[in-house]
């Protein structure tokens, strides 16, 4: 049977590895990468706990980490796609707002010119 200390060290090792991975990145992680990391860490922790129940926390952590990382990457990819779509919509909205302001100024100028003629 696996002792509490072995399980605790295994879970702490998974979290330490994740921390080192994120600390070593020179650029901020993308949403996809964050999803994979969170899924992998969560899956490894859960796998270690489940694996300890059957006598093999390392295998449980490895399997859980792989499955969690893949699932997290898929979810992160979907979220990243939604973020990009939102950015495109905000950009289009900004362009339309500028055009509306420009058209209002032109209408005001035309109205002023019309009144100046009288």
Secondary structure: elements and pairs:
Layout: H1 4-23, H2 31-54, H3 57-117
Tell me about this structure.
This protein starts with a helix and ends with a helix. By secondary structure, the chain is mostly helical. The protein is rod-shaped. Helix 1 runs antiparallel to helix 2 and helix 2 packs antiparallel against helix 3. The chain has one domain. The model has no long low-confidence stretch (mean pLDDT 83). The chain has three helices and no strands.
Alpha-beta classification: mainly alpha
Roughly how many Å is the radius of gyration?
27 Å
H and E string: HHH
> β content, as a range?
under 5%
Share of helical residues:
over 70%
